[in-house]
Amino acid sequence: MVIFTFLKSEPMKKLNIALMALALTLSISCKENKDEEQMDDSMTEMEDSESMESDGTMENMQITVPMASKSGSSVTGSISFVQEGSQVKMIANLTGLEPGVHAIHLHENGDCSAMDATSAGGHWNPGSNEHGDWAEGMHHMGDIGNLEANADGNVSYTFSTDKWCLDCDDSTKNIMGKGVIVHAKADDFTSQPSGAAGARVACGVIE
């Protein structure tokens, strides 16, 4: 009787051990599959993020630039730059201008230290193009155009483009670190190299 029980229980033990080993193997396999799925999801998110950047789709970002009076003017205010997807919107709100039309440009240097803002350098022009009208033909990347102050010397002006970006890797589009200049006169879109726009009456830095 004792011998019979021993012979019967030995295969059962082996079967139990085999079942336990199988369950452990399945548990480990499920955990590995779950870890692999989580890793795949993380890699997919990283690839999607990199794809968005390579496609030029940028995250939303906003920078407000305070404008300082220059060349003895009384011009003050601010200019905001808002990145919305691939578009950058510029929103200018200025006071103290002479009523009428004034040129506004992006300049190559983010430096407003000079009293006449000449420290901002020339127009931002990464393509080495001639000065012109943004709306038609050849132009600098900083050739925004003209804005018009009302009888009280105030102006609100909005400009949008997909040719700029905020803090991206494309140096031909990235406007970070550039100067913003408002001029005393209108841009004629013809005279080289800056449209005969006159003195620089306000300056700010995009940073």
Structural commentary:
By secondary structure, the chain is an alpha+beta fold. It folds into two domains: 1-55; 58-205, Superoxide dismutase, copper/zinc binding domain (Immunoglobulin-like, Sandwich). Helix content is 26%, strand content 30%. It has one helix and eight strands. The protein has an eight-stranded antiparallel beta sheet, with no helix packed on it. The chain is elongated and about 100 Å long.
Give me some keywords for this one.
30% strand, alpha+beta, Immunoglobulin-like, eight-stranded antiparallel sheet, 207 residues, 2 domains, 1 helix, 8 strands
Outline the fold blueprint.
Layout: H1 2-54, E1 58-69, E2 76-85, E3 87-95, E4 100-107, E5 145-149, E6 155-161, E7 179-183, E8 200-205
Antiparallel strand pairs: 1-2, 1-8, 2-3, 3-6, 4-5, 4-7, 7-8
